Amino acid sequence: MTPSSPDVVLDSxxxxxxxxxxxxxxxxxxxxxxxxxxxxxxxxPDAATIDxxxxxxxxxxxxxxxxxxxxLFEVVVPGADIxxxxxxxxxxxxxxxxxxxxx
Length: 103
What we know:
4-stranded antiparallel beta sheet, 41% strand, mainly beta, globular, 1 helix, disordered N terminus
C-alpha cells in the first residue's frame, strides 16, 4: 500500500477522528455509501459494544470496534439505500440504550 492509496488516507482520517483531530467528522461518522453498501460509523468511547438495528426489518447488526481507536465503531449494511436505523449501545456496566444516530 502506498501513502497515497485510498485505504491509507481513510486509515489516517479515522485515526485523526478517534483522536479528536479531524476537521470534518460529518465526512466519516454516520451513514455513507460505499462500494459494498452503506458503511455506518459511530464514535462512542463510553460504549462497550454497539449494534445497528434496522427499523424496517428489526435486524440487528453488530458494529466492530476499529483497532487502535478509542471507541470508533463501524458496520457495512448491504444495499444501495441508506436505511432507517438506530444505534443500540451497550455500556460497560451492562446498561443498554437505543438512540438515534445524530449523524
